[in-house]
């Protein structure tokens, strides 16, 4: 699922998480569009949307650059003012002449690797219970609360948004009780919950298998 962000100054950020076999995020693809100069590879939100050309881009796609440095800085600068606004594809297309999603994916360069830890085990493993934590950047506070429960093909989901530490991050903790051996509903449900959180203004960092 592609995520779109409007950046102050008229730029657009497009991202997509790479999801691993355990339904946790293992990488992040990023593209940045800007009508102005984008030379340099070390720019970030605090210094403007500057980035080097993506390995997947060609000169026939003007304005698009690899956004890895920007995406990293967006998530690791706690004192960063809120310069990006999550939007959907329609909102992005209203601001930029947007290529089709397959074309955007074809422009991605190598993904930014994300750290992956083994799930915590406090007892005998229960293959039908999964716990995930979707982490969000601390400098984009949520508007309203996110909590609830849902069933998908018999699988039971419950989730709660909570603060992690003193301004460290927001976390959407999701518990999954599977009805059977199939895990077919997990990716789509986690993506739906992440999209709901983005609509409140939160910017996702990663999705971890918590237990």
Descriptive tags:
alpha+beta, 2 domains, 5-stranded antiparallel beta sheet, globular
Extended strand count: 11
- Put simply, the count of helices is 4
Q: Indicate the structural class.
A: alpha+beta
Share of residues in strands: 25-35%
- Overall 3D form: globular
Mean pLDDT: 85
> What is the gyration radius calculated from CA atoms?
18 Å
Please characterize this protein's 3D structure.
- The protein is α+β, with helices and mostly antiparallel strands.
- The protein has 2 domains: 3-113, no CATH class; 129-209.
- The chain has helices at 68-76, 89-95, 101-107, 186-198; strands at 3-7, 11-19, 25-33, 64-66, 84-87, 112-113, 129-136, 147-152, 155-164, 169-177, 204-209.
- Strands 1, 2, 3, 4, 5 and 6 form a 6-stranded antiparallel β-sheet that branches.
- Strand 9 (155-164) and strand 10 form a beta hairpin.
- The protein is globular, with a radius of gyration of 18 Å.
- Residues 38-43 and 50-55 have low confidence and may be disordered.
């Amino acid at each position: 699922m592609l995520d779109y962000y409007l950046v102050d100054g008229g730029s657009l950020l497009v991202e997509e998480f790479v999801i691993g076999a355990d339904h946790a995020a293992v990488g992040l693809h990023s593209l940045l569009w800007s009508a102005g100069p984008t030379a340099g590879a070390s720019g970030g939100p605090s210094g403007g949307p500057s980035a080097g050309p993506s390995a997947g881009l060609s000169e026939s796609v003007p304005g698009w650059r690899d956004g890895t440095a920007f995406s990293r800085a967006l998530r690791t600068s706690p004192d960063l003012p809120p310069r990006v606004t999550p939007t959907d594809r329609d909102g992005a297309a209203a601001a930029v002449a947007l290529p089709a999603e397959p074309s955007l994916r074809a422009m991605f360069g190598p993904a930014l690797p994300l750290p992956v830890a083994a799930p915590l085990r406090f007892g005998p493993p229960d293959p039908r219970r999964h716990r995930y934590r979707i982490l969000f950047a601390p400098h984009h506070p949520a508007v309203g609360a996110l909590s609830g429960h849902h069933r998908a093909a018999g699988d039971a989901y419950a989730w709660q948004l909570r603060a992690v530490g003193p301004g460290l991050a927001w976390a959407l903790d999701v518990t999954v009780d599977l009805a059977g051996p199939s895990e077919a509903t997990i990716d789509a449900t986690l993506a739906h919950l992440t999209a709901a959180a983005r609509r409140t203004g939160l910017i996702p960092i990663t999705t971890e298998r918590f237990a």
